[in-house]
Task: structure prediction
Amino acid sequence: MKDRQHLFNLIIIGDEILHGSRQDKHFAFFKSLLESKGLKLNQVQYLPDEPDLLVKQLRRSFSDGIPTFVTGGIGATPDDHTRQAAAAALDLPVVRHAQAAGFIEGVTQKRGEPLDSPEHAQRLKMADFPEGAELVPNPFNNIAGFSIREHYFFPGFPVMAHPMAEWVLETYYAGRFNQTERGSRSVYVFEQPESRITPIMEHIEQTYPGVRSYSLPSVGWTHSDGTQVKPHIEFGIKAEGEAVNLLDAAWAEVLHSLDGLGAELKNRVN
Result:
């Protein structure tokens, strides 16, 4: 069975991202954050603020058993459905979290508003989580997110979500940092169609268990000084864990096979 201890999923929720009124800044951040810890982004979903769909997708996600970051939809306006959808996906009631409510009381008092004001009552809805949820601290404004079943729910604002994600990793997953060895090799292949490369890829994956191959065609480009890079294929192999030990032998066979085709090779990464 594939080792999944280094894998994490990401769910990005919000009509504003899907409709283009706001640019997504989460994908690149989470990918980079995980890679900096020797972890890996396994899957990304973009979902609208649609309650039934959120329940369906969160129910599936909870069943996957992979830690998951979820951004967006945990506010207190009518278009925020993530808290309720998470509870419904787990068949749990939504309850007010006393500590989260206390944080919100502090926010209200800091703003000079009375605790019996309509604004505070509305704000308190952001302390309503699925029963049994734990808090994820929010250093930006002290209105907490929550976690349940290794799913970590943050506001959609990057300035809040990103430090909260860093806290989650350091608090719960530090023991998984940089535990999986990875390796890769690649080369630019010129003057060869993918149809000639594919049999080499198939042979390598059949012969060396755990070694995966990839082929990325390019139409080429022109540098700023006018020099051109011709159309080519970036061909490579990669592996994780014990399969890294097979890379040298597999790569030697790849290069021998490419030389046999008479391929022009450049920019080898060994």
Q: What stands out?
A: The first strand starts at residue 7 and ends at 13. DSSP finds nine helices and 14 strands in the chain. The radius of gyration is 24 Å.
